[in-house]
Every structure is written in structure tokens, then in C-alpha cells.
Write a structure and sequence with these properties.
binds oxa(dethia)-CoA; four-stranded mixed sheet; Peroxisomal Thiolase, Chain A, domain 1; alpha/beta; single chain; six-stranded mixed sheet
Amino acid sequence: MTGTHPAPAAVVTGLGRCLPETVVTNDDLSRHLDTDHAWILSRTGIERRRRVAPGTGTGDLAVAAGAAALKSAGREDCDLVLLATTTPDLRCPATAPTVASRLGLGAAAFDLSAVCSGFVYGLTAAAAMITAGTCERALVIGADVYSSIVDPADRGTAVVFGDGAGAVVLERGRRDAPGALLHAELGSDGTGADLITIPADGTHLTMRGREVYTRAVTTMTESARSVARGAGWSTDDIDAFVGHQANLRILASVAKRLGLPPERVVSNIAEVGNTAAASIPLALADAAAAGRIRAGDRVLLTAFGGGLTWGSTALVWPDTEAVCDVRR
Ligand code: UT7
């Protein structure tokens, strides 16, 4: 029998974030780097970013963001912790089990590496596990400490990246519930692997920014359009477009191609820079906290990053209050 019970879905019920306290402005960077505020602002839209204090790592930010998301959902437990990150605390083991233990959770836990697309990949994987019945409730965290892998002398990356973490709680629910993930698509193209990389014999991230930029605009536009269609929306139905916060000009170009007016584009890049896997949940948390996205809004998430990887997710925003947290 079909029709009496709607298909199960994964539903967003909580949202949290964590930003380190230390603020690094464009002027701070200009003191030891051949760059200046005007260049950084006009080329990226970034005014400042956050940086962890020595001794603070991805796991610390992930625990704080995860705790905030659970609090926002009014929950104390979950049976899956999925951490999207490129900067795990250790090469082995994964950071997620430690995060789960520190949160007092006896949950399945694993890291997911899809660079700046990691959070959207993580949401999609966790949603599939929920709808398959593998787990009931998942904490999906995007956390990165790029200050640990960026070369402070490389002006092409040092001005761009910041540290942070964002998290959502996903629960098994109904497809017609606010917060249900309606449609998602993921993609990759490994022929672009060398565009964003840490070589095996290196310690620092390298990025061929201009080439990534061009690929990001076309791929994000196609992905967003395709997922809107899959959700049964026209692009005009999108109330809030939450793209990976890599560059304000990329977001503006994608929005223009989608025919979206600037007021439907969510961006917090001016304040936090590119926070990699944390970028989309941080943008969501900031927008929700500011009332910029409200219950019932049709929200489209689109990510793009190293791999190359990309993905989009469509959902109707739930009545969820973002819980914010800041740590040193
Ligand atoms: O998060 C994963 C996905 N990542 C992205 O999507 C990043 C996409 N790429 C970008 O956002 C941009 O390519 C950057 C912000 C990284 C660079 O901006 P751009 O407008 O593409 O600059 P460019 O690399 O083409 O460089 C243009 C000029 C060069 O000088 P010349 O050769 O024209 O004399 C650079 O040396 O700007 C110079 N430049 C800088 N000047 C001042 C590069 N970085 C800087 C800087 N300050 N920080």
C-alpha cells in the first residue's frame, strides 16, 4: 500500500554554530603580507575572519557547534555523529568519535572528507541513513581550522580562509514537515584534483584560485538549478540561496545566472571569510539568528570545493532557533 503513509524523510530540527573569538581583519593581514583591505574586499567581499587560539582544534569547535545544535533541537542524544572536515585533529583516528564522546553520545561516528562540499555531502549521507532506518537522529557538523593548513605567506589563500564550525540535527520525520530535506544531488570531477590540494609531501594548501572561480560559477549554477527542479521548484520559488561562502563575487554571479535578486542571497562572508566545510551551516545559523531566513522559506544550499566536489540540497526552513556559541 502506498499513499496512506508519506515516505519518511530527514528533517532539520536544530542548528548551532561556533566561532573562535580572535578576529583577524584585512588590515591585520596587510601588516605582514603584500595585500590591502581594498583588494581583499573588492575581490572577495571579505572584511574579517576568525582564527582559533593556539591549542584549539577542529574537534573543539565541532563539540561546541554540536552542543549548540542539540540544544536548539531540545535533544540530548543522537545515534549518529557525522563530521565533515579537511582538518581533522589527527590523521588517524577520525575526529568524530572523540567529538561524540565529548558530547556524551554513544553514537556511530565518522569523518567525511569532501572539502568545502563536506557539509552538503554529510547532510545527504546522514539523510540517506535516516530514511534507510540505519539511524534515527544525526548530528551533522561542518568544522574546519584552515589556519592550520594555510601558508600565512601565500596571499592567494591566507586572505580567504577562516576557522569555524556549524551543525544541524537531522531527525526521522515526514516529508511534509517543515525542515524536511526534499531533494539533493552530489557530484565530483577528480580531473580537477590539483586545483585545490595539499600535496603528499607538503603541509600547506595550494589553490589555483582563478580556475576554481570559473568552475565554481558554472557548476554551482547548474547544481542549484537541477536541485530546485528536483524539488519541484522554479528558481523564482527560492526564498534564500545559501551558497558556499568562497567569494562574494561567485555568489553574485551564480545568483544572477539563476535570476535571483540580491536580497534572496544569504552571505556572511564579510564577517567570517571562507570557512570550508563550516561555511554553509555557519551562513544558515547567522541568517536564522538574524531573522534573515524564517520558518516556511524555501531554502537552497549549494556547495562547491576541492576534489572537485559539489552538491545542493533543497528544504523548507523549519521553526528552529539557532543557538550560537563562541569559544576562545
Ligand atoms: O572554497 C573552495 C572553493 N574556492 C573558491 O571557490 C575560490 C575561488 N577563487 C577566488 O575566490 C579568487 O580566485 C581569489 C580570491 C582566490 C583570487 O582572486 P582573483 O580575482 O581570481 O585574483 P587572481 O588570482 O587572478 O590574481 C589577480 C591579481 C594577480 O596579480 P597580477 O598577476 O595581475 O599582477 C595576483 O598576484 O591579484 C594578485 N593578488 C593579490 N593582490 C593583492 C592575488 N592575491 C592578492 C592579494 N592581495 N591577497
